[in-house]
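Quick question, first post here. What does this chain look like in 3D?
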Amino acid sequence: MMLKTSALSLLGMATATLLVGAGVEAPAAMAAGSQTSARYYLPSGYRDFPAGSDSLEASLLDPGTIGLCNIGFGDVSIASWDDTVLGHVDLFCGDSASGYIHIRDGDGSLNDIGHEADWQDVVDSFGGGLWDDFMLYATGEAIVSDKAPDDHGNDKLCFTTPIDIYTSDGTYITTYQPTVIVSANNKSVVTSYPTHFQSDC
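> Answer (accepted):
Ran it through. Tokens below.
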């Protein structure tokens, strides 16, 4: 639970807000740890935000940090987590090969257009919001979960964990198992994309 608490703290959420629906105004995720899966609760009023809303008030990510990513500061850390296998793992702004920019835009080739649309489709399917908020939450939960990562070859590890999606009133919606690839050498996130019932690990 300590690792999950630190992941929540990185997202700017107070751990006292784990009780769902009490006075939440921004479409921010709240988590409750469990032994088998992470729970992602949609706050009350979440569906009142239009799909794809770019409201800065709704973002869990610092817009200034994303601005640094956009102008090419690849070594800026957007978020970090502590994993029992690798220790400290960062999601850097990165570039076309790894990190936030790679997750968002891909490597620039016609065959790799990134995963922003994939994450946004998931978020839109349960009411809308910001793709990268859910991506950041799911990525962090996969990294800090108790499940050992799989060897993905080329000094890369594949992390995943079940993310159960619930409405603010506790109604179960669905489960996602994100696929998160981490460089074992650099201890940094290479990519993260949503996979539904089974990850690609």
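Confidence is low (pLDDT under 50) at residues 1-35, 44-58.
The beta strands are 30-33, 38-41, 77-83, 87-92, 150-153, 156-159, 163-166, 172-176, 179-183, 188-193.
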